[in-house]
Amino acid sequence: MKKSIQDLVDKGVMLPLMEEFYTIQGEGFHKGTAAYFIRIGGCDVGCHWCDVKESWNANLHPPTDISKIVENAKTYSNTIVITGGEPLTWDMGPLTTQLKAEGLQIHIETSGAYKLTGIWDWICLSPKKMKLPTPEVYEKAHELKVIIFNRDDFRFAEAQAEQVNGDCILYMQPEWSKRDKMIPEIVDYVMKNPKWKVSLQTHKYLNIP
């Protein structure tokens, strides 16, 4: 990547755009909501069960001017979801400022492993054991979504729940490949610990992106 382009990416004026698409939010509090997804490339958190590993290498995704991203987004929906990869790898300030100028609602799905930048109407924090969230994102998260891959993740979920603010909604979501095994355990856990809610990847059941 040319240094001049890299400088613009570092400033958040251009971003490595993997894909953008209009669909139905399938997870968490806003499930069922029509939303425009912006998937930003680049992530070094390294979840072995990640279903978008092709997003990890930012160099595989073209640096795209954020004004073009905003122009596309505002055409489709009032709700914008920025995901990755790990979007907080980059400065989200310029992109979210432009999106807010268009009057859009902006959500982020993040591991919280990096500095919280940007203007957000909704922060979905999905922490990972490999790189824990920053104190600021724990304080500001609207929704905690812990992926349950094995039984130790119940312990991890409780440890994460202790870190978030009192208004944060708590979700447990089965990792897709382990759903048949883990859903009964999650249901049982939530019934015994009703501060938690169950989240499912409903878009996969609906066979949509």
Task: Give your account of this protein's structure.
The protein is α/β, with parallel strands linked by helices. It has one domain: TIM Barrel (Alpha-Beta Barrel). It contains seven helices and nine strands. Strands 3-1-2-4-5-6-7-8-9 form a nine-stranded mixed sheet. Helix 2 crosses helix 3 (93-101). The model has no long low-confidence stretch (mean pLDDT 96).
List the helices and strands and how they pair.
Blueprint lengths: L2 H8 L3 E11 L9 E7 L22 E3 H11 L2 E5 L9 H9 L3 E6 L11 E4 L9 H6 L2 E6 L3 H10 L7 E6 L4 H14 L3 E3 L3 H4 L4
Show unreliable segments: none
Structural class designation: alpha/beta
The CATH superfamily turns out to be Aldolase class I
Question: How far is the first residue's CA from the last residue's CA?
Answer: 30 Å
- Tell me how many strands there are: 9
Q: What do we call the CATH topology?
A: TIM Barrel
CATH arch. level architecture: Alpha-Beta Barrel
Catalytic activity: 6-carboxy-5,6,7,8-tetrahydropterin + H(+) = 7-carboxy-7-carbaguanine + NH4(+)
Subunit structure: Homodimer.
Cofactor: Mg(2+); S-adenosyl-L-methionine; [4Fe-4S] cluster
Function: Catalyzes the complex heterocyclic radical-mediated conversion of 6-carboxy-5,6,7,8-tetrahydropterin (CPH4) to 7-carboxy-7-deazaguanine (CDG), a step common to the biosynthetic pathways of all 7-deazapurine-containing compounds.
